[in-house]
Design goal:
By secondary structure, the protein is mostly beta strands. The protein has one domain. It has no helices and 12 strands. The strands form 3 sheets. The chain has an 8-stranded antiparallel β-sheet, with no helix packed on it. A two-stranded antiparallel sheet has the order 5-6. Strands 9-10 form a two-stranded antiparallel sheet.
Length: 140
């Protein structure tokens, strides 16, 4: 099924629920490295999802209500977010698709104000989606 390929600078939106953690999410952007251009910008190819990193996001979880901080990343693209036929420089093209699997990496643990203990979890799984500005080109 045809979908819109992502282009350099497209937005990345994360949900605020990451397992048991509630994250104050900030939007990110994806950097395209493909040689092809869409709308005067480079197309995003497989591997460009690693360019998405949103640091400085506060979070809380369970009894750990004194906010900590972490970084949002894309852990894995969804099954509908890579082209089937079309490639660029022998790499699949990233498509808008539905949802990707996200990861919230704890940098500074949230704290329990009663016991003064830190949140023991180093990361939390979540999800997110792409918002593209490309509505002209579709590919398989």
């Amino acid at each position: 099924m045809a979908d819109y390929p992502l282009i350099d600078g497209d937005k990345v939106l994360f949900t605020s629920l990451f397992a048991q953690a509630i994250v104050t999410v900030l939007p990110g952007t994806i950097t395209g490295s493909g040689k092809s251009v869409g709308g005067g910008k480079k197309i995003c190819v497989e591997g460009d999802e690693a360019s998405v990193e949103v640091a400085g996001c506060p979070y809380v979880t369970g009894p750990f209500v004194t906010p900590g901080m972490g970084t949002l990343k894309i852990a894995r693209l969804g099954p509908d977010q890579l082209s089937i036929k079309t490639t660029d420089s022998a790499k699949k093209i990233i498509l808008k698709g539905r949802y990707f699997i996200a990861k919230f990496q704890v940098q500074k643990p949230a704290m329990d104000p009663v016991t003064l203990s830190p949140d023991p979890s180093p990361s939390y799984p979540g999800r997110g989606e792409f918002v593209t500005t490309n509505f002209k080109i579709t590919i398989d």
